[in-house]
């Protein structure tokens, strides 16, 4: 009896150590119980946030310098299912600087956030609208020997965020990753990927259009050490490439009794509070596709219903 109780405590303790997205005891609203630094009430610089028109233009924010992004790096890269996302670990050779970043940052990995079959899953939102996916390119300040040290520095990480939107045509460069997803379906699985110019994945004609703010990791321990750069123009992939993320990746190990698809791996929006969100010199400020308010379609529909209603009433 005592043994059973002790075992239960151990099991639930081990279980609660990992975070998740889909169960109330470990989902983003419960992260603060396991990781105090994820508690949104104690700290005010969390991510993600909603991007709206309350932003400040800063004419000195120009292109970031993306070193090594146009080249084919040597060695191989590793794609990994870590149970929370699909991570592409890139070797050395790439770094980001300039564009108002306080230092040089080495590129260490990129990963993705997505939704479900009928849910968009970007972490940041634009005027309350979620894009289908978001890609994060994570860079660590070059003076730090390891991640532990970087997480102690208020500007220890620079993350480049890219919205991913969907069209009919496949994105051939993105296919180099999405084609490998079936090899990393289960937690812990890895696959080798031949390096390719990372710039091929990015909206290369619009790299001077971005937003900048100071925030946190969007996964535990939610450290408030991130200089965020969110690019305004999305990357486009096809519906079937999106479906590979929402249907082929599992948060559980291959031999787990219950197989749980990994979906909606995004953290909820946090208030901006007194933070300034800056707009780069060239950003168009949320015009174009991103700014079409959802309201107009809804209100038009309402208007039709009202008109139809009054027509019916007057007809009676
Ligand atoms: C504009 O950005 C630069 C580079 O990050 C920064 O030094 C400067 O303080 C910013 N200016 C304003 C008005 O925020
Ligand atoms: C989800 O993404 C699609 C494709 O970009 C877009 O048309 C739709 O408005 C988005 N839905 C929401 C609720 O943000
Ligand atoms: C990380 O770097 C710090 C600072 O140099 C060092 O004290 C620490 O032992 C390192 N931690 C690990 C896990 O390597
Ligand atoms: C992307 O950049 C091109 C070239 O500078 C520009 O003509 C286009 O309007 C930009 N696209 C968006 C959506 O801002
Ligand atoms: Zn992320």
TrEMBL record:
Pfam families reported for this sequence: Carb_anhydrase (PF00194)
Catalytic activity: hydrogencarbonate + H(+) = CO2 + H2O
Protein family: Belongs to the alpha-carbonic anhydrase family.
GO molecular function: carbonate dehydratase activity; zinc ion binding
Enzyme nomenclature, EC number: 4.2.1.1
SUPFAM superfamilies linked to this entry: Carbonic anhydrase
One GO CC term, this protein: plasma membrane
Chain ranges of the Alpha-carbonic anhydrase domain: 17-281
Gene3D superfamilies: Alpha carbonic anhydrase (3.10.200.10)
PROSITE patterns in alphabetical order: ALPHA_CA_1, ALPHA_CA_2
Gene: car15
SMART domains named among the record's database cross-references: Carb_anhydrase
Function: Reversible hydration of carbon dioxide.
Designated name of the protein: Carbonic anhydrase
PANTHER family, alphabetized: CARBONIC ANHYDRASE, CARBONIC ANHYDRASE 15
Protein keywords: Glycoprotein, Lyase, Metal-binding, Signal, Zinc
Reported cofactor(s): Zn(2+)
Record's signal peptide: 1-16
């Amino acid at each position: 009896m005592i043994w059973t109780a002790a075992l239960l405590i151990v099991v639930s303790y081990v279980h609660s150590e990992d975070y998740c997205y889909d169960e109330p005891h470990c989902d983003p609203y419960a992260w603060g119980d396991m990781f105090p630094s994820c508690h949104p009430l104690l700290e005010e610089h969390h991510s993600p946030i909603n991007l709206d028109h309350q932003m400040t233009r800063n004419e000195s924010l120009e292109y970031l310098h993306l070193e090594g992004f146009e080249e084919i790096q040597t060695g191989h890269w590793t794609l990994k299912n870590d149970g929370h996302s699909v991570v592409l670990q890139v070797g050395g050779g790439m770094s980001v600087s300039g564009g108002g970043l306080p230092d040089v940052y080495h590129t260490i990995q990129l990963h993705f956030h997505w939704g479900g079959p009928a849910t968009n899953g970007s972490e940041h939102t634009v005027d309350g609208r979620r894009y289908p996916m978001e890609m994060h390119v994570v860079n660590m300040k070059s003076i730090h020997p390891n991640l532990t040290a970087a997480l102690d520095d208020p500007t220890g990480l620079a993350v480049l965020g890219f919205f991913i939107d969907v069209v009919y045509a496949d994105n051939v460069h993105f296919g180099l990753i999405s084609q490998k997803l079936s090899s990393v379906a289960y937690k812990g699985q890895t696959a080798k990927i031949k390096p390719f110019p990372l710039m091929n994945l990015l909206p290369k004609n619009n790299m001077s259009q971005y937003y900048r703010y100071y925030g946190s990791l969007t996964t535990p321990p939610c450290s408030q050490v991130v200089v965020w750069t969110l690019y305004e123009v999305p990357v486009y992939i096809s519906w079937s490439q999106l479906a590979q993320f929402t249907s082929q990746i599992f948060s559980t190990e291959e031999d787990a009794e219950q197989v749980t698809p990994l979906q909606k791996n995004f953290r909820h929006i946090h208030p901006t509070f007194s933070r300034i969100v800056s707009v780069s010199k060239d950003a168009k400020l949320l015009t174009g596709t991103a700014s079409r308010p959802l309201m107009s379609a809804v209100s038009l529909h309402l208007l039709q219903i009202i008109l139809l209603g009054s027509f019916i009433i007057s007809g009676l």
